Amino acid sequence: MGKSFLIPESLATYVENSWLRESEVLRELREETAAMETAGMQIAADQGQFMAFLIKATGAKRCLEVGVFTGYSSTVVALALPADGTILACDVSEEFTAVARKYWEKAGVSHKIDLRLGPAVETLDSLIADGPSGAYDFAFIDADKPSYLAYYERVLFLLRKGGVVAIDNVLWDGKVADLEVLDEQTVAIRQVNEHLHRDDRVDICLVPIGDGVTLARKR
Ligand code: CA
Question: Range of 80's domain?
Fold first, then answer.
């Protein structure tokens, strides 16, 4: 399923056996990615299931994704979307998104996903410039941590009132709570966590799944 430091080892197998429902194509994608050096960038399977649930529970149709990697999250979300649902997906890597494209094909969801290769800040800025704002129902941010704040502000602008953004890795393997850890990524995540805590434009909650996910709903 992909290990989470938030679930004790002794419980992980029980959780996987009792809750996880993962389609064949998603399992195959997860296993192909697990063999890669950068495998840690893949979301956990139970987190994918949570995101699919969220999409269905909120009736989301238009989605944004910042950080595609090999496509687990976009595939699981696209499968949960209705037939006319779409994802505008941002990433900078040809190499990783080539894997994603292969699985979008396999899962039969390619037509739902509009991949924009290039820096996500530029892509989001062009969406903002194109207007109208407030058009998106759901967004997932899971890319380079030092740009999280820049992504969040743009995504919030693009979400409709009541739209939800999910932000990944907000507990950062527990390092956010260790104030002696001062590397750029940890500091950036702490900063975005503090920013959201104070941000009265959104309702927030923490979902302790995977590496920690913040959900923020635009007021
Ligand atoms: Ca992540």
Answer: 9-218
